[in-house]
Amino acid sequence: MNALSDPADLPDLNVWLALAATHHPHHAQAVTYWEQQASALLQEFRRQPGVAMAAPEHDSWDLFHALLSTAALPGRLHTDAYLAALAISHGWRLVSFDRDFKRFNGLNWLQIS
């Protein structure tokens, strides 16, 4: 992954859980993703001075509400809509095992299978 031209990844919670729990049914796929897509890049970022957590952009909130209203989402997908809005507004790629992210137009999304 080229840090200058490729977007940063925003892993969904299901990816973090699969990485952390060796008994998780998707652990092997999450580890493969981590090693092939994110690990080296994240290590480089971690070494840089001034690296911090990104704060949501102001338009993430507006985009979140737009996604909620246009997609008529059930409550169980509101967190997905927020993650999609955050990724879209920052130009990040959302990474998840969850197929529900396909409903969000404009989202750069990697579904790990």
CA gyration radius, whole angstroms: 15 Å
CATH class: Alpha Beta
CATH topology: Rossmann fold
Q: How many helices in DSSP terms?
A: 4
Order of H and E elements:
EHHHHEE
**Ends distance:** 19 Å
Low-confidence parts lasting 5 or more residues at pLDDT below 50?
Answer: none
Work out the helicity level. 40-55%
Largest sheet: 3 strands, parallel
Strands side by side in the biggest sheet: 1-2-3
Estimated share of beta-strand residues? 5-15%
CATH architectural category: 3-Layer(aba) Sandwich
Number of distinct beta strands: 3
Q: Oligomeric state of the chains?
A: single chain
Number of domains: 1
Mean pLDDT: 80
Structural class: mainly alpha
Bulk shape: globular
